[in-house]
Putative dehydrogenase
Amino acid sequence: MTLKIGVVGFGQRAGLWRHAHREGAEIAIVCDTSERGRRDATAALPEAIVTDDLGRLLESGIDAVLVTTPDHEHRSVAVPALEAGIAVFCEKPMATTLGDCDAILRAGYENKTRLYLGHNMRHMPVITQLRDLITEGRIGEVKAVWCRHFVSHGGDYYFKDWHADRRYSTGLLLQKGAHDLDVIHWLAGGYSTAVSAMGSLSVYGDITDRRDRSGERMGEWFSLDNWPPTSLTGLNPVVDVEDISMMQMRLDNGVLASYEQCHFTPDYWRNYTVIGTEGRVENFGDGPGDQIGLWNRRHMGSAEPDESMIIGGGSGGHGGADPIMIAEFLRFVADGGPTRTSPIAARQAVAAALLATESIRGDNSCLPVPELDPDLVAYYEDNQA
């Protein structure tokens, strides 16, 4: 059977439709409220219906929908789609509030409709290779996870459009960090129960050159020549999210974790260090051809890894993760069964990010992460674990 797919929000991440098309799915209808989005969709998918009416999409007979709208609009699309019995792929982060996350989860639960979250890093080779080493017991029992995220493209990626406005993104610990927080939880085998954080708007808040780019796409202003960060022009009219953040986490299994994110570094990659009772692993670079080091013997001072592994990869975005993720989603739509991504894990990543952001904007105190309804946890873990 050929799956009929809809797309809501034809912006930066809507390109995932290409992977669905290559897997044999039919992109039947696209919904976007912007003229630019509809124009781009018509050019890319001349045989698809293009509309600004969500109701028309929901009544079109599609099997599944890719929700690739801005984050604060996820609930307004995902909930009615789930209520209509349409399987949902929801781009990460799941939503920008816990209320919206839990409403999406409850809609899937109450209507027994399949829900998949787009945490593609669970398919990235650097992450899957790290996790394999951990689950194979190569470093013993995990006790600590540290992640440093260097974001050289932060000025272009997040400070020239709606991401820079906390009314829409909440903050970059959520919008950008949800990826890494989900990975930290996955590598550690637990979820955050308490978080604290510090952060500031250290660089981009001082740039006064601002303009509205609502009719543009990031690829139209991105350039490696936009350096140093203080030289950037054309930032979003509102810039009130942190460009550097540091958070700490205590997980429900006793693991301690930390996450640091900076949007004005010269290089762009993530560094994970996972420390266990019998060793540690760490990646140097996070793309195909880069390296993972493993230390499992005692050394005097700094030492080369006891074992090194080359990070694999493929084509199609994020080290080949995007096409693998979409293939898994389509299989899930058609047949159900286990998925590597998890709606519960996606919610818990949002929860950690939201509470850390609250800590930053408060007195930096340690805040508890609200628990999720056990019935929802049991439902999604039984159906997708």
The two ends are 25 Å apart (CA to CA). DSSP finds 13 helices and 15 strands in the chain. The chain has a mean pLDDT of 96. The longest strand covers residues 142-150.
